[in-house]
Structures
1.
Amino acid sequence: MRPYLLIKTELNSRKGRLVSELELTKKEQEMMDGKESVAAKKAMEILVALGKIFNAKRMVNINSTQISGVSYKNLGDAGVEFLKEFSESGAKVKIPATLNPSGMDLKSWREMGISEKFAKKQNELIKIFEKMGVTASCTCTPYLIGNVPKFQEHISWSESSAVSYANSVLGARTNRESGISALCSAITGVTPEYGYHLDENRTANFLVNVKTKLEKDSDFSALGYIVGKKVKNGVPYFRGIKNASLENLKFLGAAMAASGAVALYYVEGITPEAKKKNMLDENFEEIVIENLDEGYNALNSEVNEIDLVAIGCPHASFEELEQIEKILKGKKVKTKLWIMTSRKIKEIAEKKGLLQKIETSGARVFADTCMVVSPIEGLGFKTVATNSGKAAFYLPSYCGMKVRFGSLEKCINSAVTGKWN
Ligand code: F3S
C-alpha cells in the first residue's frame, strides 16, 4: 500500500504537482517518487510529513545541516541498525553536513576509560555517517570551525545550542530539527518552510528586562536557565545587556535551549536582527530579572567533593582554552579536569603550544565528545563541577550526576584544590 504521503492531487502547476497544500517542485516530486534513491524517497516522505504537520506550503533550499544524535549512548543498537539500513538504501548528502559530538574522543577514548565494546559501536556509527558523506566534525560548535551560515540563510540544524546560536547570533534561519529530519534535509537539500524560516514567526513575544550585572559566562548561563524556564519555546528579547562576547551568547542560548526550548532570541543592540529593526511583537509579555539567584540555586546541589570538573559545553573556543590556561597558570590539578572542544580547535591549540601548557597541569583536552553524551556515569564519576548551565541542567537527569555550577575560575580552582569550597 502506498503511504498516505504519496496520495497527491495531480495539477499542472508551474512548479510541479501538489501534495495536499504542500507544493513540491518537479525535482522534489521526483525524489518523492523514488527516482533518485530509496533513501531520498524516504527522506522526502519524512520531510513532507513534517511539513504537513506544521502547515508548510513548500520546501525551501538549504545550504547546511548539523546532525545530532551521534553518540552510541543515545542511539543504542537500534539506532545503529536504522542508520546502517538508511545508508545502504543509497543515502548520500547533497549539501555540507556536520556531526554533533559522539560518545567519546575518537582518538583518545582509552584515556577517557571508554570500553572496547562502546568504542567499536561508536566507530561503526561514525563510519556509517561518513559513508553517507557527512563530515565527522563531532562538535556542537560547527560555527567555530567553518560551518558558518550567512545572515538570513536557510539551514537545517538539530543541535539545540547550535540552533540557538545560528538563529540568534548569526541571523540564519532554522527550526529546532531532530537528528533524523536534519539528515533527511542533508540528503534532499530542502526543509519544509515553516516556523523560523518565515519572517512572521521571528518576532519576540517576551521582553526580558535585565536589571542585574552579567560578568561571567556562568552569569549568562544562569540567566539563560531562568529565562528558558519562563518563556519555554517563546522568543525572548533582552534589554539591559550592555556587553556580551560570542562565548557569553553561546552560554546564554545553550541554557535557554535546555531549560526551555528557546531556538531564537535577541539582545538589543547586539544580535544582528535586533540591530536592524525592532523585533518585538505588538503583544509581548514583560519579564524583569533583578538577580540570578534562581538560576544558581536550581543548578547547584549540596556537594563539595568533586570527581570531575567538566568545561566545554558548548564546545570550548580557542579563546576559552586561552582563558583556562591563564587561570591554571602552571598549577597542578588534584581532581580530573576535562575540557571538551572540537578536533579542529584542539589541533590549533596543539600547534600553538597551548594544549601542552594546559595539559601540563594534569588537565585533559578531549575532542569529538562531551560530558553529557559520553557515558560518564559508567566511568566512576558521581559528582561534576561545570560552568555550563546546559551541562548543569542535563547532567543530573541524563547521567545521574550531582552537580556544582559556577564560574570558570571557580571550576578550575576546585580542580586545583580538590574541593568546591
Ligand atoms: Fe554540546 Fe554536549 Fe553541551 S553536545 S552543547 S557539549 S551537552
Note: Residues 100-101, 140, 161, 254, 313-315, 340, 370, 372-373, 390-391 surround FE3-S4 cluster (CB under 6 Å).
2.
Amino acid sequence: MLTNKVVLITGAASGIGRAVALTCAREGASVLVSDRDDAGLQETAALVRAVGNEALAVTADVGNAADCQHLVERCCAHFGRLDVAVNNAGIAGPSARTADYPLDGWAQVIQVNLSGVFYGMKYQIEAMLRTGGGSIVNVASILGAVGFASAPAYAAAKHGVVGLTQTAALEYSAEGVRVNAVGPGFIRTPMIQTLDADRAVHDMLVSAHPIGRLGESEEVAELVVWLASSRASFVTGAYYPVDGGYLAR
Ligand code: NAP
C-alpha cells in the first residue's frame, strides 16, 4: 500500500507509533522515525530495518517548533521528499478534575498534544506541496469526540487536533494534501500501563468498549496506513474512530 513512499512518524519509540512504523515498512515504505526517547527510537529503527526497509531515526521534541521543522528538513535532505506524516507523539498528562487541574500540566499537555500537531503540519504541508501532495494522519483519540472526567487538558487537546485536521483539509485537499485523524479507544500501550495495572480500572475500561476488550497498537496502525495510502484517495477532513465501539454508546 505504501511502496516507495516516504513516511515520517512521531512518537515512534513506543506503542502506536512503533506499530505504525512497522506496518508502514511492511507495506513498502521508507520511514523517518522520531521520538524524544532515543533508546526506544533506536529499537524501532532496528525493527524496521529487520523488515528490510530503510529507517532514519531522528530525536525530536514535538513541543518545539524548531525540532518539527528540523524533522521535515532531515526527511527531505535524506529521502528527497515527504509523502506521509503521522503526528502521533502524545502524553496523558495529570489526572485531576478541572478545578483542581495543575496549570503546568495543562500547559504541557496542550504544548505536546495540540501545538505539537500544529507545528508538525505547518512544516509537513509545506514540504508536501513542493512535491505535488501527500497525506497526513493525526492521532487524536476517542477523547477528540467526547469528554472524560479528570482529563480536561487531554480531551481539549484531542478535540483541537480534530479541528486542526478539518481546517487543514479544507485548506489543502485541492492541492493534493489529504488530512485525516484517527480516534483510538483505550489501547494497550505504555501510556495506559498504570491505569491498566489496577484490576478494577482495567475492568471499567474494558466494559466501556462494546467489543469487550482493549485495543492493540497494530489495530490502530492498520487504519492509519490505509488512510495514509492512495486507497483512501477520496478521504480527507475525516475523523475515524478505532475504538471497539466506545463512541457508539
Ligand atoms: P506511548 O506508548 O506512551 O508512546 C508515545 C510516544 O510519544 C512515547 O515514546 C513518548 O516518549 C513520545 N513522546 C511524548 N511526548 C513527546 C514529545 N514532546 N516529543 C516527541 N515524542 C514524545 O503512547 P501511545 O499509547 O502509543 O500513544 C500514541 C498516541 O496515541 C498519543 O497521541 C496518544 O494520545 C494517542 N492515544 C493513545 C491511546 C491509548 O489508549 N494508548 C488512546 C487514544 C489515543 P516518552 O515515553 O518519553 O513520553
Note: DSSP finds eight helices and seven strands in the chain.
